[in-house]
Structures are given as structure tokens and as C-alpha cells.
Amino acid sequence: MAYIYHQASDPTERERIGLLQRYYDPKTIPKLQQLGVALGWNCLDVGAGGGSVAQWLAERVGPTGSVVAVDLEIDILAPLASRTLSVQRLDIRREDLPKNADLVHARLVLEHLRDYENDVLQRMIRALRPGGWLFLTDMDFRTMRWSDPDPAFDRVASAFVAATEAAGCNTRLGPDLASRFEKAGLTDVAAESWQTYERGGAIGSILARSYKRLHDQLIGYGARPADIDHVVAQIETAAVGVLAPTSWMTWGRRL
Fold it and tell me: Is residue 216 part of a domain?
């Protein structure tokens, strides 16, 4: 299945990616520091999106290290290339990654590749040197809630899950990552989950943009046009609060 969001298909995609970075980077970067990313490391950022993590990694590993940022679409990433940070167009579903990495990082990538999960996970692991870290973040949409009961929100949220799963997503992958790491032979596996509640924050803006982007698909899976308009307006005006999907950060070492 194709990735449900395409950078080239809508000029607002850069805004959505920017919001995702603003929401996730404050959790991702401290964990990368705890994993010990340091001068001289060789790192891979898979599905690098807007490149904020790849840029941070490049600064961290310095001139003696390297960072390779890969994605299917690299229009946003290409201008970030430097002596330390290289950008490659790569289809992780079918192509192998460069080898001997100290770290392979991917955020909100594997959940979009339900039909390729095992193959992609194995490609990431094969790219690691012995002792290297795999660090993934994916979500569980089952925990998302609205501050007040609203049938319109329930219909839109259900349609969103149905539409994204039909496009090849696994909307509940997050809590399964740790066991998948262990079954794949990784060691020192651990995970942390986190969830936020906001009115008018980044997650609400991300959801509103996503619902607008997927308007026609949501209607095809049971949402009404009036439902989508109502839900988007409630989010954008901060009239309601959103309990975000739970995000799961999972990491482990290759033996």
C-alpha cells in the first residue's frame, strides 16, 4: 500500500510535518541522548520527514561521524544535506539500508507499513553493527479521546482508523513493538509510552489537518461532511480538548 500522506500532494504537508516535529522532538531527542549518541557515531534516520532529528544527530556526531537520512520523498530533506548529513531517496519496503550503523531511528514509519512490517524491521536490524541501537516510535490510536462525548467525533475518529488501515497502516502497533524487538533477537529491549491532553495544541492541529487532508476518504468510511466540518472547527477553536493517541518509544540492541 502507498503512504497515505504525500508531501507532493498537498502544500500543507510541510506544516503537518513541522507540527509533528514540534510535538515529538522534545521526547525523541532526550531519549537519543540517553542512548549515548556521541561524536563519531554512524546513524540512519529512516523516513526522516522534515529532517529535525537528522539535523540534531548530525550536530551530535560531529565531523567524525555520519548521518544518512532516507525517505521516499526528499524534497524537504535535500536542502539539509551537509558533509555530515547525506540524504537518500530509498524505499525501505524493498531496498536495504547502508550497513554498520551505531543507531537506526524511525518515527511513525513502521505503523504505515503493515504489509511490510517484518521485512522492514529486519532491514533496520541488518543495518546495525553488533551492539548498535534500534529506536522506533509508533502510536496506538485506541486511546484517543475527546474531552466531551460527541457522536460526530466518534464517527470521524472511526472513519480515520478505517481509512488509514485500508491504506496499509497499523493503528495499534505501538505497544507491540517491544515483543517484536525481542522476537527479532534484539537485547536490552525497553519501552516508554506517553500521552498528552491539550486544547489548541500541536496534536489537535495535526488531527485537524489530517482530517481535512483525508476528507473524501473519511466520508467513504462512514463520516458525514458535516461531522468533519464540526470536528475540525471544534479542534481549531480549542472548544474541546483532545487526549492524543498513545505514543510508544521502543529501543533495543543488536547482539
Answer: no
